[in-house]
Design goal:
The complex is a heterotrimer, with 2 copies of chain A (197 residues) and 1 copy of chain B (243 residues).
Chain A lengths: L2 H12 L3 E2 H8 L3 H15 L6 E6 L2 E6 L4 H8 L9 H13 L2 E2 H8 L4 H10 L2 E6 L4 E6 L1 H7 L10 H5 L1 H17 L5 H5 L3
Antiparallel strand pairs in A: 1-3, 2-3, 4-6, 5-6
Helix pairs in contact in A: 1-3, 2-3
Chain B lengths: L12 H11 L6 H17 L8 H19 L8 H28 L26 H28 L3 H15 L1 E3 H6 L4 H16 L3 E5 L6 E5 L13
The chains are: A alpha+beta (197), B mainly alpha (243).
Chain lengths: 197, 243, 197
């Protein structure tokens, strides 16, 4: 039996998120092999012509329906899909999606405002998860499967402009470019008016 | 200059700043930041939308803006440049994610949701499987820990309201002090501030009073104490719309 | 959307046998087309290297584990039933012990995180049980009689310092705050599905 087969089968039986370590424990394979096989599965399953996809966040996997079929499946499972995200929730989730795993301090640095309450709300709603990062010795936050399902993507890497916004380095370069450009520009005439009074 | 435009509800100080700059159709740079400083401060003073627990964050940005503004007014002023470019970079970064959040919002509105199966395809019988070393005493300990961790949430709002002083309160406070003393020393005033936030609030309050010609400030030498003095004929409440 | 895709997603999400006529009704295709698509699906899925197969009984189809992997299902069930409790699970258990009967919403308000998966885990291990509370019109959780016996007590009131800890002031305040907050909060995006009938 190949590891791919075993994982496929387990994800189907459970229907819920399964972590690499849990999959490794049940299949008695090592985590690295599980990860490799799971990634292979994802590239096989996550194509437009398949009705079922495999979605991933952090180091967990789950089987889910192809988001293009939402119109059909929602009636069958009688899903409630009411509700809107508030602006602070959306903003916080966006940052965590692109920059997760992220600490509360890093999040607050980007939003410029205390995020304790909004994080708590998102944790309770199950849109965000907290983990202990052993290296950073800090709590880090990531998005959950529920948010992936809500966005209709298989993993955060599929978000628009993920590479650019995910890496601090890319973003820093981008921002610096803009600063340089701005300083090269001739001073706009608006400046004199700017200093009213 | 009176501001007449209405801003959308804002989420935090960077959002307010971004909206002010976009309203002026300016790019994010030091000039734009200096330009909107007054509007920002006025919003801070008047707005009832700012949550008490977020006030401190708004004030930190106010302090950075004032530094940028003072540099643009006094080009010779020797100040460390970091704060200004920091704020500029921070605001640009915030804008990137703010724009991204609008894209995500559109994705969600498409309602292309994925669905997962809640029920397992196999039936799992319940078996009694308690944690081996669990005792009543262990339960009591764990529950006490849980209760202790609640303290921070329960007391949070209460604390913030007590600790923070609004700019308006501080203005009234300084007016009263100056009413009995006629002159005040800046250092003395700062000593009454209990934390960093209050230092900034006090500073902003004095600035507001200067702007409204309620007090004048005099400094004898470069490092000597600043004296705050009531201007002759200034009476009563501070009028809000003076400039 | 192809009929194959639609059938694939429906068989996955249901996990149970679905008749050709039922599939035709939901997908709004005719029975013949459904049969053709299902047969095609079967020949694609039912190969030795796949972990999940599609089986046909009469004129019904069902997604199921590759029969070669029957042992894996047993391993999975065992893994679900056994295993030590994590710290968050233990915390949740103690809250149910001292504050039960308690709703999921109250539990989440106290713990500050979503508790769906933890509750399920505690239910499988026979440590807590669910009841319908007629007055609250909600499901409430209590610890099981088995757990009481294991702890050597007859009722939760015999837990150490029960009276004091049960009526903790902060706990009361927090649960009251919840009601106030909940009313002006936006509705969360409910992607989780209702029970299909």
């Amino acid at each position: 039996m190949t590891t791919k087969q075993l994982i496929e089968s387990l994800l189907f039986i459970s229907g819920r998120p399964m972590s690499e370590s849990k999959l490794a424990e049940i299949t008695q394979k090592d985590v690295k092999e599980v990860r490799g096989a799971a990634e292979e599965l994802m590239s096989g399953w996550n194509v437009p012509e398949r009705g079922v996809h495999i979605i991933k966040t952090g180091s967990s996997y789950q089987m889910a329906t192809n988001p293009e079929l939402a119109y059909l499946v929602k009636d069958f499972v009688k899903a409630e899909q009411s509700g809107e995200l508030s602006r602070p929730s959306l903003e916080t989730l966006t940052i965590i999606a692109y920059r997760g795993p992220i600490t509360k301090a890093e999040l607050e640095q980007i939003r410029g405002v205390n995020c304790s309450l909004i994080l708590r709300n998102l944790l309770i709603k199950g849109l965000v998860e907290a983990h202990e990062d052993q290296e950073k010795m800090a709590t880090v936050y990531t998005i959950t499967f529920d948010l992936l399902k809500f966005l209709g993507i298989n993993r955060v890497e599929e978000l628009p402009e993920y590479q650019k916004l995910n890496s601090d380095e890319n973003l820093r370069k981008l921002l610096e470019q803009k600063i340089e450009q701005a300083s090269d520009e001739p001073v706009p005439p608006a400046v004199s008016q700017a200093e009213e009074k | 200059m009176a501001y007449k435009f209405k801003l959308q509800q804002f989420e935090g100080p960077l959002d307010l700043l971004l909206q002010l700059i976009e309203q002026e159709e300016m790019d994010i740079n030091q000039i734009a930041l200096a330009h909107v400083t007054d509007q920002y401060l006025r919003y801070l003073n008047d707005s009832k939308d700012i949550l008490p627990e977020e006030l401190a964050d708004f004030l930190v940005v106010a302090a950075k803006l004032l530094l940028i503004k003072s540099k643009s007014l006094l080009p010779g002023l020797q100040v460390d440049d970091d704060e200004g470019t920091d704020l500029e970079r921070q605001l640009k970064m915030y804008k990137e994610f703010y724009e991204a959040s609008k894209v995500l919002h559109k994705m969600i509105l498409k309602r292309h949701f994925s669905f997962t199966r809640e029920k397992m395809v196999v039936k799992i019988d319940r078996v009694f499987n308690p944690p081996k070393h669990l005792t009543s005493e262990k339960l009591r300990e764990l529950f006490s820990d849980v209760l202790a961790s609640l303290e921070v949430w329960v007391s949070m709002e209460h604390d913030v309201i007590i600790k923070t002083v609004s700019i308006r309160e501080r203005i009234r406070n300084i007016q009263e002090m100056i009413g009995t003393k006629a002159t005040l020393h800046f250092n003395e005033l700062m000593k009454t501030a209990k934390n960093k936030t209050e230092v900034i609030v006090t500073f902003l309050a004095i600035l507001e009073l200067v702007k409204q010609r309620w007090v004048g400030v005099v400094q004898e030498g470069t490092f000597s104490d600043i004296v705050v003095r009531k201007i002759e004929g200034a009476e009563g409440e501070v009028v809000k719309e003076t400039i």
